[in-house]
Amino acid sequence: MKQIDILAIGEPLIEMIRRDGVTHGPATYTSDVGGDVLNALVAAARQGASTGLISAVGDDPFGQHIKAFCATEGIDTSMLRVSPEHSTGLCFIDPDPSDRNFTYVRRGSAASSYGADALQHDMIAKAQALHVTGVSQAIGCTMRRAVRVAAEIAKANGTLVSYDLNLRLKLWPLEEARGCIDDFLPFADIVLPSEDEAKLLLGSDTIDAILDYFAQHDAEIIVLKRAERGVIVRTASKQVSIEAPTVKAVDSSGAGDSFAGAFLAYLLETNDPIEAARRAVRVAAITVTGHGATPAIPRRESIVSA
Q: What is the pTM of this model?
């Protein structure tokens, strides 16, 4: 019997969010907690799913802050290692309502050094879903191997594998990313690419070509995220476009991640990818109305009752 809803493997980060709106001179930052897989887990947990993080943080104040944050959000950290040899990763964010303006300080971080030998096989086998991203693969070779082994364990035990492209060319070159993504796609039951990233990856501008590409790898559900235009959901039997609600966006950080986490939570609850996507686009829309990736992610009450 499955004991946890959603596990995610990747890197949690301390976010430093620029708040002064000045492009030159001294900058003012506020700190928070983020990282793509952690953002997704926060969204899932706030929709009522049980969640757990597979990763590592440094034995430093930032790592302690991330652990405390996870505890507050109800995210299981029994699979989160603390490394005395490595530091916790940082991300500096210049808020933008439609673009990703991130500067990473994560080379040699604890999460990038996380290895497959640290995986708890039984926890992955007992989860309903395992969520991974292209960032998880890009940050280091040992983490990339851990992601692959985690997916193998999941597939062998009937745990759904969810894959968010999250293509970040600041982390790895395009050709390396293409090879790694193509190699991983056969493991993915659910694929969650963003339109701009998919066009960059495939060199194609057509929606059908993008959806066909991911469908050929036998994913059961493909959700193409289109920012303020909503999403397109494709399954074996249907293709549905879902519009996003109109909001006043101030920072797009974490929008796609919050969609992914909420989508998984509601998919596991309803077994209906269309309804799950309808609820998740509302989660993502509300997320971009606040600064940083996690502070504005809404809770279930404001979504289900909407």
A: 0.93
